[in-house]
Structures are given as C-alpha cells and as structure tokens.
Design goal:
about 80 residues, alpha+beta, Metal Transport, Frataxin, Chain A, 3-stranded antiparallel sheet, 3 helices, about 40% helix, about 15% strand, globular
Amino acid sequence: MSKKEKLIARFLTMPSDFHYDEVVKLLRFFDFTEVKKGKTSGSRVKFMNAEGVPIMLHKPHPSGIMKEYQLKQIKEVLEL
C-alpha cells in the first residue's frame, strides 16, 4: 500500500486524531492547492482545484486536530 492509499484509508475511518497537516497532504493528492487570502484571513484557509471547486476550513488551533464536521465536509467534496 502506498502512502497515498494509507492516508486515504485512514481518512475514511474518520479518526478523532486526524491532523491539519494530514488534510493538506490529502488535498494535494487530489490536486487542491491552498489559496492565499491575505494578511487578515486569520485561521481561515481556502483550497481550490483546477476545476475551481473550493474547500474552506478553519485551521484548528492550538492542537491542529481536525473536527469531525470538517472531515465530513471534505469527504463530501472529494466524493469518497
């Protein structure tokens, strides 16, 4: 199993300890890139793919652990 397959399999289990850095890697596998929103965006982050499909998130802090609702939203957009 490749790293990509392992990360996708882990994501699909909706773990309670899925980290923001893992989300960034996962979205890169699906050709999403982070869109810089400027200095005042704070913890808000936007990812877009080539077709213009957006995924908007709040960076979790201070722990970096994603909330379950965020993982569900990402899963819906990725259609996994």
